Structure formats: C-alpha cells, structure tokens
Write the structure tokens for this entry.
Amino acid sequence: MPAVLGPRPASAVTRENSLLESGREGGRQGLALARGGLVAGRADGTLARVNSIICDAIRSRRVLEFDYHGLHRVVVPYCHGVSARGTEVLRAIQIAGPSASGGFGFGKLWIVDEMSRLRLTETPFSPDDPNYNPDDSAMVRIHCRVAIPT
C-alpha cells in the first residue's frame, strides 16, 4: 500500500497524475509516488513531503520501490541527505529489480530527482550491511539515517 498524503485539490491531482504518466515536469525529470502521487522539484513543498516519505521508510525500516533510469528498483534505504553538489541523494542497497551496473548487496547512491514512481512498501527490513557508515561521506547534510545501536 503506498504512503498516503492528505487530500489535495482535484486540479493538483489531475496535474500530478499527468506528470506521473510522463515522468517529467517542465522538461525535467520528476519524482512521483505511485498513482495520485507527488512530483519533486516544485515550489509547493512537494520535495519536503517526498523527503519525509524517504525518511519515514528509513525510520520505520521499510523497503522502497521506484523507477530509476527506466528500470524498476527495490531498495533498502539507509541514509538520505544532500550531496556536496547540493543534490538530494539516497544511500540504499538494491535488493530486487534490474541493475544497469549489475550491483547488488552494497550501498549505492541514488539521485532523488532521477527517481519516479516512488512507493513506500509494507515490507520491513533489518539493517545488516556491515559496510554501512551512518556518517556517509557522500553527504554534506543528512536528513535521516538508519541508527546503529551502541
């Protein structure tokens, strides 16, 4: 079941559904939640809501699904923040779906704005990556991360 955000005006839903179908906004790749979802990069606070959904997945330790560069990915999210280039990124381990690099089992850095059809699943995960560093050096600011018990 996808994460549900509060009601929006019908015009916003219609606009977002059309963007969901195209996966683009103003010629720029957008981020969308499955059906009736969100598109990132908008000035209406949508990016903050998308970031919140990613952080909810990390806090609740639930798997995320999204399309990335035309391929459907299923990932275990570990850390979400901003890169040195000012780009919103997600450190996550891909556990299913095709991989252009063939890489599974290690933390990849995903650019949030290049994702589409983001979906928070009900599938739980247990963080077990022995190489996970909660102080991810690829990020200058961290919004949320999997906590390591001390």
Observations:
- The two ends are 33 Å apart (CA to CA).
- Helices lie at 10-22, 46-60.
- Residues 46-60 form the longest helix (15 residues).
- Residues 1-43 have pLDDT under 50 and may be disordered.
